């Protein structure tokens, strides 16, 4: 179909899907007069191009198409890559030599074009420089950690399974946690006010000592825990006031990650993020979240959730190394998160949430490749979650997703509780779970955190009644759609009070029915 379109030039993303070139060149509709734009420079990642490999692709195309009909380009828009590597004065030199940001990628396009021409002597030095950088990367001790590789090699099937099935775990967790019907919780983060962000900035600039900064964070956690107790939430959170970004925070504490100073890219709308650079084998040297989670738990007799970002989401929301399968990298992250989960359990956390909002967005373009991806993505989550006792309740959170296509894989994740974003769809997104007869507990969101509008009590109750009509009441949790990081405290407090009151009203109705 593409070859029959009335176009002068056809562009191919040969980074995401190199097989497209074979599809075109071998098609019966192929016309050597069609101009092809070869998307060889990765527009989604930050690694230097492999000139040697790219020239082979150009040669393959040039064997069937006149050289004057070939274009050399980026795989896609450079919107997804940072602007200029030259601005990064604090990146380690060894790592920096392997990278190319948008400005450098434009130079790579020009160099590749000229290397493909007969008279290319002027550019041969750049070719050799590129070849050496890629060779250095393959051999770097900074990247390769034998202990991590051995641990991946020794992963067992049992590492991705809980001790008992969900029904057995559910009974033990009900006894251990003693939660009411329709338990209430939040997704994890509380408002990151201007004051909280200012503390972090002052600490980074040396204007606050570590002791002063920690004292401010501790006080904020204490205030938030007391607020949650006062309004009657059942499972509390510490609020994540010490965290900058849900991926960056963990990357800063894991081996194998580096960080740019100016590597901002658009996330969605007007929101920008600065993704970590995942360049090497991933490992965890010490606990990352235990300090603040266990401190918060010490302030209350109610269960408090330990909050973690899952391995697939860390993978998806980083600039990921392209020198090994993504599955391997995912498993490395999963083992690091698993160590954190086990440590949280040891320090008295009976509820642990591992967020995985990015599982669906990682689906390959071609549907025939979905099963392989979902298999290792689900396994990665389970490796991270399955090192705990039956009594420890594992939560996960997903948002931004249509679930119908992957509902079986979500069930295979076997989280004790999944919380999802359903308020804006008036619970329609719940249909996938209902039709599938999702076996575990579920928290359909009743508060749209993307809006400053506070839902009233009646609205929340109506949503919960919809959920109660299609799900076992013993499986329903009551919670917002997502984290409350971007909201202000007044609207947050009022919305959560309404959520608690709605859950209490439903409990009262159930008691009256009995």
Give a description of the structure:
With 514 residues, this protein is of the alpha/beta class. The protein has helices spanning 19-25, 51-62, 93-96, 102-115, 124-139, 146-153, 166-177, 194-204, 210-231, 248-251, 290-298, 311-316, 326-346, 370-385, 407-413, 431-436, 457-470, 489-513; strands spanning 9-13, 35-41, 70-74, 254-258, 265-268, 271-273, 277-284, 305-309, 319-320, 351-355, 393-398, 417-420, 441-444. The protein folds into 2 domains: 2-139, TIM Barrel; 170-193 and 223-249 and 289-513, TIM Barrel (Alpha-Beta Barrel). 42% of the residues lie in helices and 12% in strands. The strands form 4 sheets. A 5-stranded parallel β-sheet has the order 8-10-11-12-13. The longest helix has 25 residues, at 489-513. It is globular, with a radius of gyration of 25 Å. The protein starts with 8 loop residues before the first strand and ends with a helix.
- Per CATH, the class of the largest domain reads Alpha Beta
* Order of strands across the main sheet: 8-10-11-12-13
Domain count: the total is: 2
Tally the beta strands: 13
CATH architectural label of the largest domain: Alpha-Beta Barrel
């Amino acid at each position: 179909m593409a070859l029959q379109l009335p176009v002068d030039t056809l562009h191919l993303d040969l980074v995401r899907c190199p097989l497209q070139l074979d599809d075109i060149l071998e098609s019966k509709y192929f016309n050597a007069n069609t101009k092809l734009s070869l998307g060889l420079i990765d527009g989604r990642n930050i690694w230097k191009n492999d000139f040697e490999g790219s020239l082979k692709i150009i040669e393959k195309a040039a064997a069937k198409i006149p050289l004057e009909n070939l274009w050399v380009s980026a795989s896609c828009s450079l919107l997804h890559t940072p602007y200029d590597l030259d601005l990064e004065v604090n990146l380690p030199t060894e790592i920096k030599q392997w990278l190319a940001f948008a400005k450098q990628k434009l130079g790579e396009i020009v160099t590749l074009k000229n290397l493909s021409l007969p008279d290319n002597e002027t550019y041969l030095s750049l070719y050799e420089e590129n070849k050496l950088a890629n060779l250095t990367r393959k051999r770097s001790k900074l990247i390769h950690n034998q202990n991590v590789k051995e641990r991946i090699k020794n992963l067992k099937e049992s590492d991705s399974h809980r001790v008992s099935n969900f029904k057995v775990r559910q009974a033990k967790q009900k006894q251990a946690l003693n939660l009411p019907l329709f338990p209430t919780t939040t997704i994890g983060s509380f408002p990151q006010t201007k004051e909280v962000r200012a503390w972090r900035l002052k600490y980074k600039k040396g204007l606050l000592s570590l002791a002063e900064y920690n004292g401010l964070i501790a006080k904020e956690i204490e205030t938030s825990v007391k607020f949650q107790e006062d309004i009657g939430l059942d499972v509390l959170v510490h609020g994540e006031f010490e965290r900058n970004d849900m991926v960056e925070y963990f990357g800063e504490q894991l081996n194998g990650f580096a960080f740019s100073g100016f590597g901002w890219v658009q996330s969605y709308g007007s929101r920008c993020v600065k993704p970590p650079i995942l360049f090497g084998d991933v490992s965890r040297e010490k606990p990352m979240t235990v300090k603040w989670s266990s401190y918060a738990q010490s302030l209350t007799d109610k269960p408090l959730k330990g909050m973690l970002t899952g391995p697939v989401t860390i993978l998806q929301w980083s600039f990921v190394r392209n020198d090994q399968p993504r599955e391997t990298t995912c498993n490395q992250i999963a083992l690091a998160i698993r160590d954190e989960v086990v440590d949280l359990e040891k320090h008295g956390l009976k509820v642990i949430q591992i967020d995985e909002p990015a599982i669906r967005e990682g689906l390959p373009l071609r549907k025939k490749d979905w099963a392989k991806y979902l298999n290792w993505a689900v396994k990665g989550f389970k490796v991270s979650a399955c090192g705990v006792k039956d009594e420890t309740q594992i939560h996960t959170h997903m948002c931004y997703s249509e679930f119908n296509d992957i509902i079986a894989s979500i069930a295979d994740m076997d989280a004790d509780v999944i919380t999802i974003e359903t308020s804006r769809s008036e619970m329609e997104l719940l249909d996938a779970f209902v039709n599938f007869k999702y076996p575990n507990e579920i928290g359909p969101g009743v508060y749209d955190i993307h809006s400053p509008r506070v839902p009233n009590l009646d609205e929340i109750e109506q949503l919960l009644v919809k959920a109660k009509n299609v799900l076992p009441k013993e499986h329903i949790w009551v919670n917002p759609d997502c984290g409350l990081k971007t909201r202000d405290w007044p609207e947050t407090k009022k919305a959560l009070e309404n959520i608690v009151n709605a859950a209490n009203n439903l409990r009262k109705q159930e008691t009256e029915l009995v």
